[in-house]
Specification:
The structure is a single chain. By secondary structure, the chain is of the alpha/beta class. Helices cover about 20% and strands about 25% of the residues. The chain is elongated, with a radius of gyration of 42 Å.
Length: about 425
Amino acid sequence: MHKQFVNFDHIFYSGKLQHSVENTSRIWKSNQLGDASGSNKSIIRFHSIYYWKASKVAIFSVSDNSLSGAIPTSLGNLTKLIKLYLNDNNFQGESPPSLGKCENLNELSLCNNNLSGSIPTQLGGLSSLSICLYLSSNHLTGVLPFEVKKLIILGMLDVSQNMLYGVIPNDLGNCIRLEVLLMRGNFFQLGSIPSSLSSLRGHTDLDLSKNNLTDPIPVGGVFKNANATFLEGNNKLCRGIPEFHLPACDNLDHHKERSTLKILIAMVSQVFGATLVFSIMFLFWFRKRRKHPASPNEENPLRLSYQSILKATNGFSSETFVEKGSFRLAYKGVLEDGKIIAMKVLKLLSHGAFRSFLAECESWRNIRHRNLVKVLTACFAVNYNGNDFKALVNEFMADGSLEDWLHPPIDMNDGEEAAKTLNLF
């Protein structure tokens, strides 16, 4: 049974390639559909819609048209494909990894499109490729996948005129049948040309020009032939045969040593400066900590139960009562260790009391100032009647209320008022 091929070359199609191509294809213009044997009986010329089963297609070509959009991922279902030509169109997006399922493919051309993204590892490692892999003149980025070491029978690899970067994989030396390697016009850098490239036996054309390669070039192999190796545009390469017109490596090594020394001095200066700044900051912090040591309450927060508060206020007696507010009662208490505290007990039965309590807790959580009365703890418990009990416990200020200082009680005589003085510092 003859293998089918589909040839739509040079027809000047525009628009998008049908995404259901693995099942059927609709052809409106006069084209050819036949078998690879070239038998005239199998050549069909037509002007009407024609459906063809694509599962047995071995050669698929739509090159030199104006097709756009993404390359259909369904092309990966054409598992009998041997040759696939999508070059010289306007395809965008990434190269579909599904093409890696075409395990019989020996020739693939995606060059001269607007493809972007990285080269899929499934495509870079398609070991059946034996003739060529054309990916040039796109907008491909990223590194050349290390899976290219699986292309051991590939004859030609062209990734020129893209935006690839990083190192050239040393495992390219495994591609023992590689004759043409074109990597011109990328951003390959971060090291020297792999010495394994000099061991390629059948290499007849190597183009690494206009990259950012450095260090000495390998010796032997294709690097002995200036007519087959192109290296211009890599200003940091050295050594090689005289026809390359490259400088001696000693000059570049001296320049590299000076550059390395400058970088080392800059790094040491930055580290020293950062260490000095952090040392000064730590010194200020340490001196401030010695001057204002943390109180025991900050290191060990006070924990009070309802029973201990009840005992400290003598059962909330009138002698310990301080004042009454809209939503709370204020008491003075004495703990077992003799510490005097002040507490605000929430009147939960008052409408809006709980909301006021939450607002006050939120305020205390966000406000920090040395002249504010410190909150020692909060108590959330249940009293002996089974009702909720909530209170805020503060330091007790022996000088009384600020309001009394600003607005003395009416029954205070002039002598008492004159005798009271308050130091605000």
